Amino acid sequence: MIDYATWAAIGDGVAKHLTAAQLAVSLGLDVKTVRHWIGRPYAPRQAVRRSSKLDPFKGRIVGWLDAHPLSAQQVFQRLCDNGYGGGISIVKDYVRAIRPRPREAFLTLAFAPGEAAQVDWGEFGTIAVGDTRRRLSFFVMVLAYSRKMYVEFTLSQTMEQFLAAHVNGFHALGVPRKVMVDNLRCAVLQHRRGEAAQFNPRYLDFARHYGFEPVACAVAKGNEKGRVERGVGYVKGNFLSGLELPDFAALGQAAQVWLESVANVRVHRETHRRPTDLWADERAHLHAVNPRPFDVGRVLTLRATRQFRVNFEANRYSVPARFAGAQVTVKAYPDRVCIYHGEDLIARHARSFERHRDIEDPDHPKVLVAQRRHARDAQVLRRFFALTPLAVRYHAGLLERRGHALVHVRKIVALAEIYGDDAVVRALTDALAFEAFSSEYVAHLIEARSRQLPEASPLVLMRRQDVLELELPPADLSAYSDFARGHDDGGSDGHD
Q1: How far apart, in whole angstroms, are the C-alpha atoms of residue 218 and residue 198?
Q2: DSSP letters of 334-401?
Q3: Which of 5, 84, 244, 441 is the most exposed place for a label (fewest CB within 10 A)?
Q4: In whole angstroms, what is the distance from residue 299 CA to residue 347 CA?
């Protein structure tokens, strides 16, 4: 069966004196089909409707559905009781056709100034943090009346991040009478259909502290907090889409600039006013933030390792060495990790969102290092006293004469390792005799003795004949004669 346009094209081709074969090639049809339609009027073939086993029962089905909201399964069971012998698939298709699922309608919720804020989390891929990558999350708070928005980026969606973001949002916007949340685990532990929500006790404490009432949306009713849902989408589409994500530390400042220059100063499509202008009217109806801060830290009980480390979120944080193996309490804040033993704060570290990092306070291993140093010092003293009984007296002299006796003892023991015990003992004996208490003096004595030359051997003269028979020229005594004459002349002048 061809369509009307193809039939018309065949007629046009015949009018131009084209053959059936030429028309078949140009139209992509079989030549027999072209010949069939040449000169024939267009009369599309009528589809023959096949009968169905359900046809005799369709009137009853309509009556049943008008009287009761029956399911397709219930309709099928009634049909079988009335002699229907077909399958359930055509019953479901027919019920769906005559009773289409109605689209759910939503009321536009209206809120008074300061009545409510809506909060939710959003996610947008990952971001580099050091050598690792973390999921990028952001917290959105929107005032239901003015639509003024607060956004904060985080690297996790844990309780401490959730509560701290609330506090920062309250400082930026004010505290409303209600805060509407989805069924987040941080806020709602359980919410069955038709029953009241069971809130997280910690979130209830937080709400009482800041003076707002938490409100959980009905199950699968995200439209009840549609303002923040659209806010999350707006952050993704207007701020994050196409943004080359900077370093995480700079992301918060960039978001603040975006809020002040774009999000909160745009003309909102529903209110037709800028959120910041409506917020100016709403501020008087918002509560001030409680000046007494709420402890948002998440508490965990962990055990320190023998290397005096606490493993938390794929990182290791040090505690003082004396708490190795002890059970400790960890309080995790968005920016820091505090570790307690009982009620005593024993460690505090900046929180790391990298992975497999070892974060150590330089003061924590000092006690252990000092203990090991004392053990080494005791070993050195035992070695020194074992050299000779005189070592005890020499050590007493070092204590009396020198400020750091142990330093001299270490050096003397080192000399024994180099020159041997006998050389050091002899030097100590001499030094004690001269009351010279110093490792430098002992070293000097050892080196002086090591440099002594052997005793001289007897002199042997080789008396050869040519050496003994020497002929020497006579001595020239004229200089003495001249000296004698000059002396005599000078003496006679002096007597005159």
Answers
A1: 12
A2: SSEEEEEETTEEEEEEE---SSS-EE--TTTTHHHHHHHHHHHHHHHHHHHHTT-THHHHHHHHHHHH
A3: 244
A4: 15
Tokens of 205: 């404490």
Tell me the residue type at 169: G
Q: Which of 198, 128, 200 is nearest to 160 (CA)?
A: 200
CA distances to 113, 205, 288, 450 from 163, in Å: 23, 11, 17, 77
- H/E element, 122: strand 116-129
Q: pTM score, two decimals?
A: 0.58
- Which of 316, 340, 313 has its CA nearest to residue 158? 313
What pLDDT digit, counting tens, does each position of 369-417 carry? 777 777 788 888 888 888 888 888 888 888 888 778 888 988 998 998 8
| Antiparallel, parallel or unpaired: β 132-143 and 116-129 | antiparallel
> Strand 344-350's sheet: what is its strand order?
298-303, 327-332, 336-341, 344-350
- The whole-angstrom separation of Cα 356 and Cα 129 is 12
Mean pLDDT within 98-122: 76
Whole-angstrom Cα distance, residue 415 to residue 418?
5
Residue 368: exposed, middle, or buried by beta-carbon count in 10 A (0-12, 13-18, 19+)? middle
Beta pairing partners, 140: 120, 151
Instruction: For residue range 183-229, list pLDDT tens digits in order.
Output: 888 898 887 777 788 899 999 999 999 999 999 887 655 555 678 88
| Strand 149-154, strand 213-216: pairing | unpaired
Q: Which contacts (CB < 8 Å, 24+ apart) does range 110-113 have?
A: 111/144, 111/145, 112/145, 112/285, 113/145, 113/146, 113/281, 113/282, 113/284, 113/285
Which tokens in the block code for residue 346? 């024993």
Residue 232 carries which side chain, given as an amino acid letter? V
pLDDT of residue 75 exceeding 70 = yes
> Residue 352: pLDDT above 50?
yes
Question: What is the token pair recorded at 167?
Answer: 């506090």
**Half-sphere exposure at residue 253, Cβ-oriented, CA atoms within 13 angstroms:** 5
